[in-house]
Design brief:
The protein is an alpha/beta fold. It has two domains: about 210 residues, Rossmann fold (3-Layer(aba) Sandwich); about 210 residues, NAD(P)-binding Rossmann-like Domain (Rossmann fold), CATH 3.40.50.720. It is about 40% helix and about 15% strand. The strands form four sheets. Strands 3-2-1-4-5-6 form a six-stranded parallel beta sheet. Strands 10-9-13-14-15 form a five-stranded parallel beta sheet, with helices on one face. Strands 7-8 form a two-stranded parallel ribbon. It is elongated, with a radius of gyration of 24 Å. The model has no long low-confidence stretch (mean pLDDT about 95).
Length: about 450
């Protein structure tokens, strides 16, 4: 374990974690940070969330959850027990034993990694870092961020040394919003660090609340695990999206082909086409890997092609909508189109990178008279104009020239929609197995 002083830092932190006496500071109370903070609070740790959005910090302290996967009652139990509170003050770091970073890692307009949040937070930590603290990065990023970006900032500004004075690890989040089966507690957790002491203490911390923790040899390996997981999904979605484009050309039903192919009991995994990809991971993470590869003069052609195909889908949906309108003898500029669903995923109030909004933007720019319905998002902005969700009445549906299903929320009665609509374009395949008038429906 090295010299006595290092052993003392390690053993004291380990004891406080095992006895649930460690104070946990979670930086960023978004879709990853808030569920993580609640889970640690439920396990008995004292948790403070540092959230730079004062409104969000206030909501946490008032037990008002803004994250779908955490109910206000669940949040309230942790807050009222005195185990969880939120603050906007980075000085909370000084009293923490474990600091967990859950900040966004977006892309720039040129599709390159934007690490400004990680760099800013790491700098704030470095000016308050004390011996014996563990810092764990959960944000998805390219391989090398923890060691090559964070560690130099922490060591330079604090004068402390990783593995000797403080501990640093990467454990990428594996949050699937809306998934009722796999939660923070029962989703396998990958943990990596570039020195043995940091890895051991990080494993100890995560094992307190997560059923199965998977160690890897370095932070860099853990970072690559995460971006590969999401790149895997992006590539397979691109494959079925390209199949949908081909089936459209040769007049075949892509859903029939996929449903039949998925009856094979081995060697295949179900993926389905749609209007594009959205959310916090799939549209973004492959570009982190693509960018890192270029740094070592390696061209990830497969990944780049998958991104290109997925980005084509909103435009394809637009063109297919116009094709349906033309068949009805209606010019797009004269058409009234209702889009069902604005979020990127069913049954969630999350519209980040939503392809539904991309489709709406394209339609709006073509002068379509656009409306939308989404109980999860009562108001959105499309191409600079604020739109409000409208009610699905028989009269409203009958007024529309086309109803376009962009997100297949479970709360929508699709047979009712088809019954009252003139025509439906279904980009999610939700109507194909329902008892409804399929002559009105065009599938993607």
């Amino acid at each position: 374990m090295g010299n006595f002083e290092n052993f003392n830092h390690f053993s004291q932190l380990q004891d406080s974690i095992l006895n649930r006496k460690a104070v946990v500071c979670v930086i960023g109370l978004g879709y990853v940070g808030l569920p993580f903070a609640v889970e640690k609070a439920k396990a008995g740790f004292d948790v403070v969330g540092v959230e730079q959005n004062p409104a969000r910090a206030g909501q946490v302290n008032q037990s008002d959850s803004y994250i779908d996967d955490i109910s206000s009652a669940e949040l309230g139990a942790a807050v009222s027990a005195g185990k969880l509170r939120a603050s906007t003050d980075f000085d909370e770091i000084r009293n923490a034993d474990v600091i967990v970073i859950c900040v966004p890692t977006p892309l720039t307009k040129n599709l390159t990694p934007d690490l400004s949040y990680i760099e800013s937070v790491t700098t704030e930590i470095s000016h308050r870092l004390k011996p014996g603290q563990l810092i764990a990065l959960e944000s998805t990023t390219y391989p090398g961020t923890t060691d090559e970006v964070m560690r130099p900032i922490l060591e330079k500004n604090s004068g402390l040394v990783q593995g000797k004075d403080f501990f640093l690890a990467h454990s990428p989040e594996r949050v699937d919003p809306g998934n009722q089966r796999y939660t923070t507690q029962n989703t396998n957790k990958v943990v990596g660090a570039s020195d043995a002491q940091s890895l051991e203490i990080a494993l100890c911390f995560y094992q307190q609340t997560i059923q199965h923790v998977v160690p890897v040899s370095s932070a860099k390996a853990a970072e690559l695990v995460k971006v590969f997981e999401n790149t895997f999904r992006a590539v397979n979605i691109a494959l079925v999206n390209e199949l949908a484009l081909l089936c459209d050309r040769i007049d075949l039903d892509v859903w029939e082909v996929l449903d039949a192919a998925n009856t094979k009991p081995f060697g295949i995994m179900p993926f389905y086409p749609g209007p594009g990809v959205g959310g916090h991971c799939i549209p973004i993470d492959p570009h982190y890997l693509e960018w890192k590869a270029k740094e070592v003069n390696f061209n990830t052609r497969f990944i780049a092609l998958a991104g290109e195909i997925n980005r084509r889908m909103p435009s394809f949906v637009r063109s297919k909508a116009f094709r349906v309108l033309n068949q009805l003898g209606i010019a797009p500029s004269k058409a009234q189109v209702l889009v069902l669903g604005a979020t990127y995923k069913k049954d969630l109030a999350d519209w980040r990178e939503s392809p539904a909004i991309e489709v709406m933007t394209a339609l709006k720019r073509d002068q379509v008279n656009l409306s939308y319905h989404d109980l999860y998002i009562p108001e959105i902005q499309v191409d600079g104009q604020v739109l409000n969700s409208i009610e699905l009445t028989p009269e409203t549906l009958a007024q529309m020239d086309l109803v376009l299903i962009a997100t297949d929320h479970s709360c929508v009665d699709y047979p009712y929609v088809v019954q009252h609509a003139k025509a439906v374009l279904d980009t999610r395949g939700i109507t194909r197995t329902l008892d409804c008038d399929h002559t009105k429906v065009t599938l993607l």
